[in-house]
């Protein structure tokens, strides 16, 4: 009888636990560890909670309170402080240790707090946990002055919730455009213009220098000083400055980490029987040609399935990492795939319709499309994904797309399907 332990009860941990129960021997024990006083839930559902579309129960990954008991999966509330690979035990914050035979590290990520004076003050929150959501609900009342630090992917999702709560919202982004890790200069600028037209004040190329509590000269709980010298009153500050993998407890353990836990094609670390999945894992990406952390839920689920199958004794390889981000920013749809910023010595083409809020950027390495940006349409999302992830050789169609990027569907039908047929014949 084996004891399978999973650190982290987010989407990756939940999928892994359920997959193990389905494929591991019935006598095996499965323990799922989480450190919050809540059933396993989805962080991606928190904006919908703030919208008022769902209750806290709506964020739960499994709604039936008897689900885990019926599956024979033990939920344990605790925090892992250290890993001993020789003894194959975990040191727990509550005291004592927990032994395991196989281990999945699905500890996720945590918000990064920039080193700003006053960042830990009252009414300064991240938007990552249910506790954060409760605090934001309390202070983000209609008309409240809210300042959001960061306009990345997570920041734009939070922004939607705040606008729907009818607050007076100001967004401060250090980059020269919105969503700078997902969009190029033209695309990020278009999103900024769209958001400002919706009544949100946006400061790009700016930083928050300090946050003051109970300023004597302002009728507000907080005063926020920007790098421009401007000083703004606020009822609430939300930090959305990115996230980092939760791997600190692995320091000195012998598990090899870079940005996250380095894994092979089976999601196994350098230590046999110890696997990783989700935001804390680095998996190989064929488009980038190296291991990367890809903190999106579809990847977490795929990685968790592969890891769990191997923990159960079956040989399963990860199909690959999906580099896709699709974002709805106050009604404007944008997406990025792969190496959207281009590659050295590569070629690219952009097509922009500012009045129509549409933009398309395609990037090539030789005759392979390696990345793209798109704004204002969902028509090409499936084609872009297929061409980028499939590393489809476009041949003469590369030059046709450079001349007219709207011919994506023709290129896909001509090249991707032919490549699929060749692959079938080869097998």
Please write out the topology.
Layout lengths: L2 E5 L3 H13 L5 E6 L11 H6 L15 H5 L1 E5 L2 E5 L4 E4 L4 E3 L2 E4 L3 E3 L12 E2 L4 H10 L5 E5 L3 H12 L3 E6 L11 H13 L3 E4 L3 E6 L8 E5 L4 E4 L1 E4 L3 E3 L15 E2 L11 E3 L4 E5 L4 E3 L4 H15 L12 E6 L2 E7 L8 E7 L4 E8 L2 E8 L5 H9 L7 H7 L4 H19 L1
Parallel strand pairs: 1-2, 1-7, 2-3, 7-19, 9-16, 10-11, 10-16, 11-12, 18-20
Antiparallel strand pairs: 4-5, 5-6, 8-17, 13-14, 14-15, 20-21, 22-23, 23-26, 24-25, 25-26
Helix pairs in contact: 1-7, 8-10, 9-10
Summarize the entry for a quick read.
With 427 residues, the chain is of the alpha/beta class. The protein has helices at residues 11-23, 46-51, 67-71, 130-139, 153-164, 185-197, 297-311, 381-389, 397-403, 408-426; strands at residues 3-7, 29-34, 73-77, 80-84, 89-92, 97-99, 102-105, 109-111, 124-125, 145-149, 168-173, 201-204, 208-213, 222-226, 231-234, 236-239, 243-245, 261-262, 274-276, 281-285, 290-292, 324-329, 332-338, 347-353, 358-365, 368-375.
What can you see in these coordinates?
This protein is of the alpha/beta class and 427 residues long. The chain folds into 3 domains: 3-110 and 245-311, 3-Layer(bba) Sandwich (FAD/NAD(P)-binding domain); 124-239, FAD/NAD(P)-binding domain, CATH 3.50.50; 331-426, 2-Layer Sandwich (Enolase-like, domain 1). The chain is built from 10 helices and 26 strands. It has helices at 11-23, 46-51, 67-71, 130-139, 153-164, 185-197, 297-311, 381-389, 397-403, 408-426; strands at residues 3-7, 29-34, 73-77, 80-84, 89-92, 97-99, 102-105, 109-111, 124-125, 145-149, 168-173, 201-204, 208-213, 222-226, 231-234, 236-239, 243-245, 261-262, 274-276, 281-285, 290-292, 324-329, 332-338, 347-353, 358-365, 368-375. Strands 3-2-1-7-19 form a 5-stranded parallel sheet. A 5-stranded parallel sheet has the order 9-16-10-11-12, covered by helices on one side. Strand 22 (324-329) and strand 23 form a beta hairpin.
